[in-house]
Amino acid sequence: MWVTSELLHLLGYRPPAPGAAEITKQNITMSSTGSTPTFAENDKFDGTNWTSWRRLIRLAANQRSAMGYLEGSIQRPIRARNTSIPNKASTAPAPTTPTETTWSSTSPSLEEWTNRDAWTMGLLLFNTKDAVGRGINIDGTVAEAWQSYIDIYENASAMARQNTVQDLHNTLYIDNTDFDLFITIL
After folding, report:
1. Does 159 map to a domain?
2. Residue 105 within a domain
3. How far apart are CA 151 and CA 155, in angstroms?
4. Of 114, 109, 120, whose CA–CA distance to 145 is shortest?
5. 178: in domain
6. C-alpha to C-alpha distance for 143 and 153, rounded to whole angstroms
7. 167, 166, 168, 186: which is closest to 177 by C-alpha?
8. Which domain holds residue 137?
9. Residue 85 Cα distances to 11, 67, 91, 95, 113, angstroms
10. Which tens digit of pLDDT belongs to each residue from 90-117?
11. Which of 18, 65, 99, 139 is packed most tightly, with the most Cβ within 10 A?
12. Considering the domain boundaries, does residue 186 fall inside one?
């Protein structure tokens, strides 16, 4: 029997990602019903894969036009939009059906904003291993949660990068030493 990549995918097989996560259909599972996408288990955030995970989150958020919720540029409406049009013949306003806005709209209704913020929060939480244990703020908006990821992990990644650069600058090859060992240490 020949085993195709499609069959392996249906069986749930995910090839190990060498280093950074590759962004493919195998990494992200999305249904057409609008449910929150979930990543392959080895691509979920575990505290050590910030850079590759952040890229996957941004890809999924962009695909759904949810970056405004993630970054906080689409603010929670103070009150619900007025959904009635005054009728001159009557003192009571005639009810109308509100028009649904697109996900990228900067003026969603309160209900739309709440649902979209919750969807985007799910994107973060369903793709993080132990978010609360990692110190992520999940009590507010998704933008507040995203900011807590950035505050904790972006700064740590930048510091680790700086330390690595400093270590590389301080590493010297000494003549007549094992070159393979030197490269391994690097």
Report:
1. no
2. yes
3. 6
4. 120
5. no
6. 15
7. 186
8. 17-146
9. 54, 32, 11, 7, 22
10. 565 655 666 899 999 999 999 999 999 9
11. 65
12. no
Token readout for 21 is 């996560």
Judged on CB neighbours under 10 Å (0-12, 13-18, 19+), 124 is buried
Q: How far is CA 156 from CA 107, 150, 159, 168, 170, in A?
A: 35, 9, 5, 18, 21
**Contact (CB, 8 A) for 109 and 79:** no
Tell me the C-alpha to C-alpha distance, in Å, between residue 9 and each of 4, 23, 33, 43: 9, 15, 20, 15
Query: d(Cα 52, Cα 26) in Å, to the nearest integer?
Result: 15
Q: What tokens appear for 185 in the block?
A: 């240490």
One-letter amino acid identity for 129? K
52 SS3 class: helix
Residues counted in the chain: 186
Other beta carbons within 10 angstroms of residue 51's beta carbon come to 13
Task: Supply 23's token pair.
Answer: 């962004």
Whether the predicted pLDDT of 76 surpasses 50: yes
Q: What is the pTM of this model?
A: 0.63
Three-class SS state of 128: strand
| Residue 164: pLDDT over 80 | no
